[in-house]
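Encode chain A's predicted structure.
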Amino acid sequence: MKKIEEFTEKGFASIDNIYTKKEVAHLLYQINQTNTDKETFRKSSELFAIRQFLKEVPEVVSTIFNNNLIAILKHLLGDNYFVVKSIYFDKPQTSNWYVSYHQDLTISVDKKMPVDGYENWTNKQNQFAVQPPINILENIVTVRIHLDETDENNGALKVVPKSHLKGIYRPETIDWSVEREEYCKVQEGGIMLMKPLLLHSSGRTINNKQRRVVHIEFSNQELPEELDWSERIRMS
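Encoded structure for chain A:
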């Protein structure tokens, strides 16, 4: 599959037509029916987000995990993959919110424990996050489901191709005489596959169009026995 090869080589790939317009509309309906008063919801003029999305809005699971997505996940991770993190992002039409270049270096776990190789612990909204050994990050697959057509004018991710192959890559050390940027345009109902170690950023919205994305991270790797993934959901 050409797109899978592209993902492996470049650290990202966009695949269109994973969801029909009817499926997208149904997902948005289910999200809009949700009680937003919980502490896992973040609401501001710049961003609306639902953390632990699949646990907070379980109604969406059957729609998200259609045959198209399951086939891709099995191709990438085999039969024993599971969800390790899920977030819904809604970037409003007038948002000036942006994120500078970074790698996704932490995972969500069920508790804080002293474990060799696990460092830089944080605790936000009663959720523990930690930076694991790099092999754990290398085996995570991020799927970003786009519920709106997205380009450079409404917050499409901007990435540095192949940067996922360089380990921990600090943004302040990027050599732009060597590296290049690429926008990840995705159609409504399409997905973007991404490696967490890929350097990526998100710009401001300048075309008055919304950008709604379901961000789900998958793995088939077990953590040390002292820890477990906090959002672990087996879908296969």
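The domain at 2-234 is CATH 2.60.120.620 (Jelly Rolls).
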